Amino acid sequence: MKVLLTGAKGQLGSCFQDRLPAGWEVWATDSDVLDITDLEKVKRAVIDYQPDFVVNAAAFTAVDKAETEHKTAALINETGPKNLALAANEIGARLVHVSTDYVFDGEAITPYIETAKTNPLGVYGKTKLDGEIAVSQIQPDALIIRTAWVFSEYGNNFVKTMLRLAQDRETLGVVSDQFGCPTYAGDIAQAIIVLLQKKSAGGIYHFCGDEMVAWNEFAEVIFSSALRQGVLTRKPVVNGITTAQYPTPAKRPKYSVLDCEKIKNQGVILSLWKSRVDEVIAASNNK
User: Which of 49, 102, 112, 124 is the catalytic position?
Assistant: First the structure.
């Protein structure tokens, strides 16, 4: 099995390489190796390597920055996936594309199913949705996996940010009126591998953590774990604040919980995110 992986240095890309099954071969690329916004370069790479699958873990994920860098966000989140789908089609390879809960507006009160109406609130969500549409139109058999609130031992993420802030702050204000499901990047990688091994039907799948929380509750879990493991000597006081008290350039959905029954029916286990927080903090502490 040959896989061309994009976004190899990111959270998901790094975790995917860590979990590569025996007998699988991967060409791990990042933007310095393969510019996915350049169709001719993408086609040349795919034709030369002849992968069975193309896994697109590359994305412009800076939600607030996307509001002012619309063109760059669109190139990476829409044009890039479109190019990968076109190139994959030329050799009969299958594309796996990773998307986001931010394609929804957060007005729901029950978990979003895959066919729920999309209505992104910002540029990031809009460009990710445009990428989904482009991929599905070009390659209907592609696997599109929407996920949420990603964290890992790699890169920058909420877990690492909270641990850094806790080093010198006794109190922290963290948003308490946005709800979602934290998801470990390694579990997303494993979900992709399972879907490919099972030759699951194409289309959109939702995958996220097993339990809904607000951002302030997520922070509490992080600090409790870090305290137990001796990473922190004291636990900061977390004050829940409203979205209005913490204005950001991009508007975020207040509720973006994903319904994962479809992917569970493929034998994929949801991300038990609280135990994964423990593992990520332990791994970071041992580095």
Answer: 124
